[in-house]
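Re-run with default settings, no changes from the original entry. Doing this only to confirm the output is reproducible before filing.
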Amino acid sequence: MSGKTNGGRKATAITLKVALLAVAGALAGCMNDSEAERPAAELTSTPSLSFSPSFPCDQVGDGSIEAMICGDEQLSALDRELDGVYAAASKLAQNEQPPMLAAEQRGWISGRNDCWKATDQRECVRTEYERRIAELQARYRLVEFDGPVSFSCDGNPANEVVVTFFHTAPATLIAERGDSVSVMYLQPDENGSRYQGRNESFWEHQGQAVITWGYGAPEMQCQRTQ
């Protein structure tokens, strides 16, 4: 009897082990199925950015404006857009004398990096990119435009300002007065179209324009002549 009892206990133990192994296998299978159903990105332990600017991010300093651009999808996209616009402008500027575009771009990059001084650094960088893109598109006629349109100022036909409007974002105009040229950007205004440059401004409403030309210069009352 004792022999039969021991044999029965052994059989029971073996059956229990088989059952436990089956349960463990089923659980492992469920875990594997669950992992297989998860997106590959969730299984990757180290996340990677799907965007980048036109310059290598592994060479920028921590906390720099370049580092901010590398970590921001919109700013990276603006940098790539500017890179393409600059390349197109460079082809058109090959015969310019003296060659100024490359030096201007280096100066612009220096100015962009000065955005670390701004209260809202990201907004400063975004604005710098948008205006530089618009400026190059306007100067090198890379977008559609309207004009040129002539304005006679202060009742003197010789005091003429010639304006061309460009379909950029933000909207841009290039104004010429004698040998001087000014690039201006559209500003919000409830009473007409107002553009602002470095030291010049242009405001127009129904063919009448108010133009200032130079730092501290008085306003000129101008009439569209064509």
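The longest helix spans residues 2-37. The two ends are 122 Å apart (CA to CA).
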